[in-house]
Write a structure and sequence with these properties.
Length: 303
């Protein structure tokens, strides 16, 4: 009988904390997996700082050394803040369980002094060139074109696109059902009519079930690397430089919607964002928009 290899369990206190998040905190499975990954990362990193010492017995200085090492290795500010939040939660659980006298991270937060970097996106002219570069004949070319169109036209994450099945195309409502989404937040995304027409033609060749996008040889579901290669090849044909990736197309989707005055809440819903802060990075599109909005208030004159 074929057996599935299980990951090595963490310390019983950590497993208890993860169980607490599940049963009491009612966190979604993906969040618990994310916290588990963070704890394993923290154990590995802090073992280099203070070997053989449990996380709840470490000092603030130890965590500062670990976070700085993560920063030096290229970890983003948002990832550092996430790691800090996850470990702080564990330490609070350890303190309430009587395993430590204090939470070394209680009240500690990272100071984000650096200005948030604007996400890389294409201009409208560059996006048009990229789409035009996908115009070719044959089943493989049609598949690759649809990959680019859905990434840009629907703002999909790469993993979300890979996990799409034929059944996730809602033909009545002309929508894509994204069920495998970040943070376990499924959503429905309207498909632009031009893209929907091409999608229907593709489905006539593709079939009625299984993965929406498959490899040509082994007929397996496309993976993230496969999609990256498709986008990179299209960008090369379009003469675009600077490392165009699937994420670039997702950012372009949001940026171009913002440029057209689409409400921030609608963009957040389409992209599957969990908080307004995530969508707020696209406010760079029209720097004067917020000032212009304030000037419309009837202050000092008639309403």
């Amino acid at each position: 009988m074929k057996t599935t290899k299980q990951a090595t369990p963490l310390d019983p206190l950590m497993e208890g904390y993860l169980g607490y998040l599940d049963k009491v905190g009612r966190k979604v499975p993906r969040t618990i997996v994310d916290v588990r990954c963070t704890l394993r990362r923290a154990i590995s990193g802090l073992e280099k700082v203070r070997p053989g010492v449990e996380l709840w017995h470490l000092k603030l200085e130890d965590y500062l050394h670990w976070l700085e090492a993560e920063r030096q290795s290229g970890c983003s500010e948002s990832s550092l803040a996430k790691y800090l939040s996850h470990v702080r939660g564990l330490l609070d659980y350890a303190w309430r369980s009587g395993r430590t006298e204090r939470n070394a991270l209680d009240g500690f937060n990272l100071l984000h002094n650096q200005r948030r970097v604007e996400p890389k996106s294409l201009s409208l002219e560059e996006a048009e060139r990229l789409v035009k570069a996908t115009e070719a004949f044959g089943p493989s070319a049609r598949r690759d074109r649809l990959i680019v169109l859905l990434l840009y036209g629907c703002g999909l994450r790469t993993h979300e696109l890979c996990m799409l099945d034929v059944a996730h195309v809602n033909r009545e409502r002309h929508e894509l059902l994204v069920l495998t989404a970040k943070g376990d937040r499924p959503r429905a995304i309207p498909i632009p009519e031009v893209i929907y027409t091409e999608l229907l033609a593709y489905l006539l060749e593709r079939g009625k079930r299984g993965p929406l996008f498959r490899t040509n040889q082994r007929k397996r579901r496309l993976r993230v690397n496969d999609v990256c290669e498709v986008v990179a090849a299209a960008a090369t044909r379009a003469g675009l430089s600077g490392g165009v990736t699937p994420r670039t197309l997702r950012h372009s989707f949001a940026t171009h919607l913002m440029d057209r005055g689409v409400d921030l809440a609608i963009i957040a819903s389409l992209m599957g964002h969990r908080s307004p802060q995530e969508t707020g990075v696209y406010l760079h599109v029209l720097p004067g928009r917020s000032q212009a909005a304030v000037r419309t208030l009837p202050i000092g004159g008639r309403p």
